[in-house]
Amino acid sequence: MKVIHTGDIHLDSKLSANLPKDKAKERRDEILKAFVSLVSYAKENGVSKILIAGDLFDTRNTSALARNTFKNLLINNPDISFYYLRGNHDENTAIDVLDDKPDNLYLFNDSWTGYSLDKEDKVMLYGVELNGSNTENVTSIFSPDPSKINIVMLHGQDTETVCVEKAETINVRAFKNKGINYLALGHVHAYKSWELDAMGKACYCGCLEGRGFDETGEHGFVVLDIDEEKGTVTDTFVPFAKRHLFEVNVDVSMCDGTLSMIEEVKKTVKKENITSNDLVKIVLTGKVDVDFEKDTDFIRHTLEGDYYFVKVYDKTEIYVDPKDYMLDKSLKGEFVRQVLSSDEISDEEKGEVIKFGLNALMGGKTTL
Ligand SMILES: [Mn+2]
To answer: What pTM does this model have?
Structure first.
């Protein structure tokens, strides 16, 4: 039996943090298309069950397009069973399809629910939707039949992976030695798989498509090949994302202006395996002179034809050599010396303050 483990699809994500309106809409459509393609993959590859480990939708306000697409995928694929465990982003979105819930949609609630995945009851799927009050004792009361193949689905943050977003915590260690063959987890958006104990594995399937630059790397889903006779579960990650996100640091300390920065950026970016379908965030780093000429818009405009989306983020620091101003008796010298010796301005801010101050003293235009 073949089973897909997916999750964190976040249909209808706004995606407006980086992308302009038209591209955000295009990416939203691509994420929905990725889910449609996943179901086609299941059909073409003899996968009869799809486990959705939470966060199918991004917010409570889902579009009619996303809701209807999900519902029609269920109706049009009666031979595939969908097991949908709601995550912290799903809220009541599943209820939209519940009025006339298709027979092949299986849901979970805040106490343990078990489904038999095969006719002989050899393969079991268990899941519980975690919330503030049940998280503590769900593990202690859980004891599956060790003679069966046991898959457990949960959505939450394992105690060993750092994640910024708030979610229910899963003490993965407490699931050790309980006869679990595969712990299908959702919430962490990067694929991660590790040994749960001597017999089982734990795995975050990650999201289908990266959305922001905190979701770089490969994305896809996991296919479980379950041998009911031998009692084994083999898990394989299937890369599936149409586009990838890259964050590339470029040290421009040795550059002498915008044009040479572009050369340096191109040289650095070339070392990565980035295609024209991808989204790239260039982070300029290093130390540059006060009067260094740089135009990040020009860098972006030069590169943007080569990729789906380019963002240039300037993290360079301004280098000021106090020796250059030590003997300078002018107002400029006095200003630089005062800023450098100030306890009220942080070292990181000093460069910027000097840059704007000198610019103003020299009669240049200053935009804060
Ligand atoms: Mn998520």
So the answer is: 0.86
